[in-house]
Design brief:
The chain is α+β, with helices and mostly antiparallel strands. Helices cover 14% and strands 28% of the residues. It has eight helices and 25 strands. A hairpin with a 2-residue loop joins strand 10 (135-138) and strand 11. The protein starts with 19 loop residues before the first helix and ends with a strand.
Length: 394
C-alpha cells in the first residue's frame, strides 16, 4: 500500500506501478508462460475458411485458415522462406501456399511443395517447417495451444456445455459478451477477469449508480463469501428478496481465464454459459462465449442494455451518466496501477484470485504443471456449481 502524506496532495504521489507478473502476457513473462500452458479460443469455427484470417493472441500475430480437406491451421505469419506474410497466401486442398515463391505448407507447417526449387524441392522441403500451433474445435470455437509442445494438455470439457437438456444445443459468440461494451476492450485482461470475483460492485455500479441495468433483485446488497477450489475461486452470494424468499447465487473463475457467471437477469437454475477472457495482448482483450440455447442467435440478442439501448448506441454523456463494466474497467487505464490500490474486505475474492494466479505462475516457472492441466482421458472434465438458486419464504 502506498504511503501518503497527511495533506493528501496528489503532488506527493510516487511514480505509479503495475504488477507485471500478473498482467503481462508475452512469452517469457510469468503470466505469459502460465497462460501458454492452457488452450485458448482464437475464433469461431466459421472463422477458419479458405481465406487466410489474421488473429492475435497473447501478443502473437498468427494466420488462421481451413484447407480444402476441412482441417484448420494456425501458422506463424512470416513465411519461413523469405518472410512475406501468409495473409496473402492461397489456401488449397492440402494447405496454404505463399504468394511470393509458392511454397506450400500444411496445417502443421510441413512444407509440401517448392515449385521454383529443383525437383519441386524434393530434397529441400523436408529441411524446413513453418512455425505452427496445434488447434482443436469444440463448442463452435477453435482453440489453440501456444505453449511448449511437451506440456500440451487435453482440451477441457465443461459440464455446463456438455450436459444438455432436451431441445438445447451449444452456440458460440465472439462479440465480447461480458465486456459491457464492444468486442475488443482497450485494457488488460485481468481488469475484466477479476471483476467476476467482485460481486459487491453490482448493486453499486449496475443499480444504485447507473440505474437498474440488470433486474431489480441484483441491486440488493448480498451477503458474500469466497472460497478457493482446485481450479479457481468461487463466490457465494445470498440476497434476501422483497417477497421474503432468498436468492443463492454462485459465480466462478476457472483457471486460467474462464468465467462461469449465471445470468444477471436471474434465469433460475444452473449456469447456461461460460466465457473465455482472451488476452489479445497485454493491453487489449476480448471474450469468447459458448452457451446452451434453444434458439439460434440467442447469444447475440442478450447484450446488456442501458436505458433500453445498446452500449454502442449511447452518447458520450450517457456513458458518463450510466457507466457499466466497460467504463469502470477501461477507466482503470490500459494496465491499472496496482501500487495505488487500497484493497478492503469487499475485495477478498480479487485478492484470492490474484494469489492463485501468482502461485500457479510460480509453479510453472519451477517446472511444474498448473492446476487444471489434464493429461489422461477423463480428467479433462470440469464441473461447475454456478447458477441462480431460489428458495421460497418459510
Amino acid at each position: 500500500m502506498p504511503s501518503q502524506r497527511q495533506d493528501g496532495s496528489a503532488y506527493h504521489l510516487p511514480n505509479p506501478q503495475y504488477e507485471a507478473g500478473l498482467t503481462r502476457v508475452e512469452r517469457g513473462t510469468p503470466m505469459g508462460e502460465l497462460l501458454r500452458r492452457y488452450w485458448h479460443p482464437v475464433g469461431l469455427a466459421s472463422d477458419a475458411t479458405s481465406r487466410p484470417r489474421p488473429v492475435r493472441i497473447l501478443g502473437e500475430d498468427l494466420i488462421l485458415f481451413r484447407d480444402g480437406g476441412g482441417r484448420a491451421g494456425l501458422l506463424y505469419p512470416r513465411c519461413c522462406h523469405r518472410g512475406t506474410t501468409l495473409y496473402y497466401g492461397k489456401v488449397e486442398e492440402r494447405g496454404i501456399r505463399c504468394c511470393y515463391h509458392g511454397w506450400l505448407f500444411d496445417a502443421e507447417g510441413h512444407c509440401l511443395d517448392m515449385p521454383v526449387e529443383p525437383g519441386n524441392g524434393a530434397s529441400f522441403k523436408h529441411k524446413v517447417r513453418q512455425p505452427w500451433y496445434p488447434v482443436e474445435e469444440r463448442y463452435g470455437l477453435i482453440f489453440a495451444y501456444l505453449g511448449p509442445p511437451e506440456h500440451k494438455p487435453l482440451l477441457p470439457r465443461f459440464q455446463v456445455l456438455e450436459e444438455l437438456d432436451d431441445g438445447e444445443f451449444v452456440e458460440a459468440d465472439d462479440q465480447g459478451i461480458g465486456t459491457g461494451g464492444g468486442p475488443v476492450a482497450p485494457c488488460n485482461w485481468l481488469q475484466h477477469f477479476e471483476n467476476v470475483m467482485d460481486p459487491l460492485h453490482v448493486p453499486v455500479l449496475h443499480d444504485g449508480f447507473s440505474g437498474t441495468q440488470f433486474v431489480g433483485a441484483m441491486g440488493i446488497v448480498p451477503d458474500v463469501r469466497f472460497e478457493t477450489f482446485a481450479l479457481g475461486v468461487r463466490s457465494y452470494q445470498v440476497r434476501k428478496l422483497d417477497n421474503g424468499g432468498t436468492l443463492n447465487r454462485i459465480s466462478e473463475t476457472v483457471l486460467p481465464t474462464v468465467r462461469v457467471v449465471a445470468s444477471p437477469r436471474l434465469t433460475p437454475g444452473r449456469c447456461e454459459s461460460i466465457g473465455w477472457t482472451l488476452p489479445i495482448d497485454s493491453e487489449t482483450y476480448t471474450v469468447y462465449t459458448a452457451a446452451r440455447v434453444r434458439e439460434a442467435g440467442v447469444l447475440g440478442r442478450i447484450r446488456s442494455r442501458f436505458g433500453g439501448r445498446l452500449w454502442s448506441e449511447l452518447t458520450e454523456r450517457e456513458h458518463q451518466d450510466m457507466p457499466g463494466d466497460w467504463e469502470a474497467q477501461v477507466g482503470q487505464g490500459r494496465i491499472t496501477f496496482h501500487s495505488e490500490e487500497h484493497l478492503g474486505a469487499s475485495d477478498r475474492g480479487v485478492i484470492m484470485l490474484r494469489k492463485m494466479l501468482r502461485t500457479e505462475a510460480a509453479k510453472v516457472a519451477a517446472g511444474g504443471h498448473p492446476a487444471g492441466a489434464a493429461f489422461t482421458a477423463g480428467s479433462e472434465w470440469i464441473e461447475s456449481s454456478a447458477g441462480n438458486w431460489f428458495a421460497s419464504a418459510q
